[in-house]
């Protein structure tokens, strides 16, 4: 893919720089053409490691910059305080996305790569159209969402390569491994045992207070709430550790009918 | 439900007591998590058979019931089975029902004494359990014969068409019905809870057959009602210093394990299994209460039976009550096991085709 076939069309800066170089003159920095870019689009607050690895390696090999976009859901206005709720949801999404991008920044610095991280909200099609207008020299798109290329691009004509990881990007958090689950179970179990020991080793004095009546009634009530939280969490992890959990229910996004598009390059990458 | 003055004797605990309470708590929690109610009716007489005074037994039982219901409700809410709006509206009317039920109990106690009160309780028990439990069981059998697939009951369909404002839409229960049909179900739940300590035996079938909620949503929503009623009742008892926190915590140790397992179970098995378990338990408990009736009739002088016979009948009554819970638990665990086993081969086949 070279500049002439770039989908962004004729770039005046690039043409001027090219003509200077053709004359053997050096190109001043402010006229230097922008580097070509890969647009990586994800539909969650973070990209999975396999997707990031692939995108960064590809950018490195091609010498392109990377623009990574986390697209958050458009919040429909509903009910009282809808604006406030929407703002809070967006702030939370942005915070999660920034937090997830921090280790990536370190990797980029170490590899000497240039990448930009953006968070946008709304439908994929709208976000893509806006980005396509804003960013120059996007060569192609890496699709790390669950949506199909046709739904994604709207009217934008860019090559799209869909990265399928097998699990789907809706399943953002990895399955907890056995050691984590066991660790959690034992941790909460220890807390439960500690609580029970505390009550039963001091049962005389506790019974004395708890059965006084009146305002002391708050004591047994507060105690059972505390035990419910600690022991309840232990019980949850215990059943999980024993492999007894509800069958997973994946949320399937509603597929919008695809608009007829010109045939575009399709490549499924199994990473 | 009388105030007790002076010091109340709290029992000493030994390993048998602890094990018994833990196991009954677990099984009760399992059934509760699955059908939305149950367990309480075994625990109170169970504790009394250990020597716990009646008031302390009721109070400690209630004090474990509401956190168990909370944990179960939260878990089933995560599975999308709880209709919070329905639960809260019914809890409000159930609260009123409880007060009315208590007043009726007190009046009967005053008029006919303890024996008369017990007879009233037992007869109510038997009537409700046989009628409602029998119908629930028959309905489950019919659905199983047809190969599954619950449908909204004809009564509910007719009631939903009656436009009596305010009409309320319950999204999770997938029903839109007048408030004036919703409130009586909650009220009856509260009344029954005050009488026989299990409101869910009217609440859950009521939500299914009168309001048209699916049994999964009805049993999950019942936990919300149980939480609210349990909390209210506990506060009343705790203010009088009747809660034996040691008993409560031991039962809770078992029931929090059981209630989560029961909740998970609802996602494993076919929906009509809830009706099967509920109907079965109700019918066996009806037998148990029927076996206790002769004793009250004898006390009131309406029947003449020897003390030996009465003791045997009492023991059998208690046994049948425990049997109800055990049978319910066995059905739940059996259904979960079968569902798990039938799931496994499918997964293995996929792995083979990929490998």
Protein architecture, described:
The complex is a heterodimer of chains A (271) and B (355). Chain A is α/β, with parallel strands linked by helices. Chain A folds into three domains: 1-33, no CATH class; 36-174, HUPs (Rossmann fold); 178-241. In chain A, 47% of the residues lie in helices and 14% in strands. Chain A contains eight helices and six strands, in the order αβαβαβαβαβαααβ. Chain A has helices at 12-22, 49-62, 82-111, 124-134, 149-153, 178-201, 203-210, 218-241; strands spanning 37-42, 65-72, 115-121, 138-144, 160-164, 266-270. Chain A has a six-stranded parallel β-sheet, sandwiched between helices. Residues 1-6 and 346-355 of chain B have low confidence and may be disordered. A two-stranded antiparallel ribbon of chain B has the order 1-2. Chain B has one domain (15-339). Chain B is an all-alpha fold.
Q: How many individual β-strands of chain A?
A: 6
The DSSP helix count of chain B reads 11
Secondary structure tally: strands of chain B: 2
Low-pLDDT residue spans of chain A: 1-7, 166-174, 250-256
Task: Report the end-to-end length of chain A measured between terminal Cα atoms.
Answer: 23 Å
């Amino acid at each position: 893919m070279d500049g002439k076939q770039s989908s962004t069309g004729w770039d005046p800066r690039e043409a001027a720089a090219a003509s200077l170089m053709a004359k053997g003159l050096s190109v001043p920095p402010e006229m230097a053409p922008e580097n070509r870019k890969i647009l990586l689009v994800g539909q969650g607050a973070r990209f999975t490691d396999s997707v990031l690895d692939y995108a960064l390696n590809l950018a490195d090999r091609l010498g392109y910059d990377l623009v990574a976009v986390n697209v958050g859901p458009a919040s429909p206005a509903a009910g009282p305080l809808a604006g406030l709720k929407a703002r809070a949801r967006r702030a939370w999404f942005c915070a999660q996305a920034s937090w997830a991008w921090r280790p990536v920044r370190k990797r980029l610095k170490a590899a000497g790569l240039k990448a930009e991280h953006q968070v946008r909200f709304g439908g994929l099609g709208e976000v893509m159209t806006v980005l396509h207008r804003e960013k120059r020299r996007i060569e192609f798109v890496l699709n790390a969402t669950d949506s199909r290329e046709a739904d994604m691009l709207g009217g934008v004509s860019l090559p799209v390569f869909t990265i399928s990881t097998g699990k789907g990007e809706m399943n953002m958090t990895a399955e907890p491994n056995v050691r984590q689950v066991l660790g959690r179970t034992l941790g909460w179990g220890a807390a439960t045992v500690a609580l029970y020991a505390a009550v039963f080793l001091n049962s005389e004095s506790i019974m004395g207070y708890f059965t006084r009546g009146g305002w002391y009634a708050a004591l047994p009530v507060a105690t059972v709430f505390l035990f419910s939280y600690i022991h309840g969490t232990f019980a949850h992890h215990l059943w999980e550790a024993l492999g007894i959990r509800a069958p997973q229910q994946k949320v399937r996004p509603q597929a919008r009918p695809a608009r007829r598009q010109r045939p575009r390059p399709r490549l499924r990458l199994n990473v | 439900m009388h105030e007790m003055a002076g010091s109340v004797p709290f029992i000493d605990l030994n390993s048998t007591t602890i094990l018994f309470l833990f196991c009954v708590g677990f099984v009760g929690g399992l059934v509760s998590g699955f059908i939305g109610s149950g367990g309480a009716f075994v625990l109170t007489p169970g504790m009394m058979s250990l020597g716990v005074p009646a008031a302390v037994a009721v109070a400690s039982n209630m004090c474990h019931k509401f956190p168990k219901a909370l944990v179960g409700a939260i878990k089933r809410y995560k599975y999308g089975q709880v209709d919070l709006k329905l639960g809260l509206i019914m809890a409000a009317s159930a609260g009123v029902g409880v007060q009315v039920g208590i007043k009726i109990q007190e009046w009967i106690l005053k008029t006919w004494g303890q024996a008369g009160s017990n007879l009233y309780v037992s007869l109510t028990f038997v009537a409700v359990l046989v009628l409602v439990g029998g119908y629930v069981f028959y309905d489950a059998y019919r659905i199983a014969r047809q190969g599954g697939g619950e449908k909204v009951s004809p009564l509910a369909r007719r009631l939903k068409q009656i436009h009596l404002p305010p009409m309320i839409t319950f999204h999770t229960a997938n029903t839109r019905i007048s408030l004036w049909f919703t409130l009586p179900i909650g009220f009856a739940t509260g009344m029954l809870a005050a009488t026989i300590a299990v409101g869910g035996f009217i609440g859950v079938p009521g939500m299914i057959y009168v309001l048209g909620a699916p049994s999964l949503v009805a049993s999950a929503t019942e936990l919300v009602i149980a939480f609210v009623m349990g909390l209210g009742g506990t506060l009343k008892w705790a203010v009088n210093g009747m809660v034996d926190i040691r008993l409560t915590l031991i039962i809770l140790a078992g029931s929090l394990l059981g209630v989560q397992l029961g909740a998970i179970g609802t996602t494993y098995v076919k929906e009509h299994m809830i009706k099967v378990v509920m109907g079965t338990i109700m019918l066996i408990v009806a037998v148990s209460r029927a076996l206790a009736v002769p004793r009250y009739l004898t006390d009131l002088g309406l029947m003449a039976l020897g003390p030996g016979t009465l003791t045997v009948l009492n023991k059998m009554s208690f046994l049948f009550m425990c049997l109800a819970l055990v049978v319910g638990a066995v059905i739940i665990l059996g259904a979960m096991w079968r569902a798990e086993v039938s799931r496994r081969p499918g997964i293995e086949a996929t792995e083979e085709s990929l490998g």
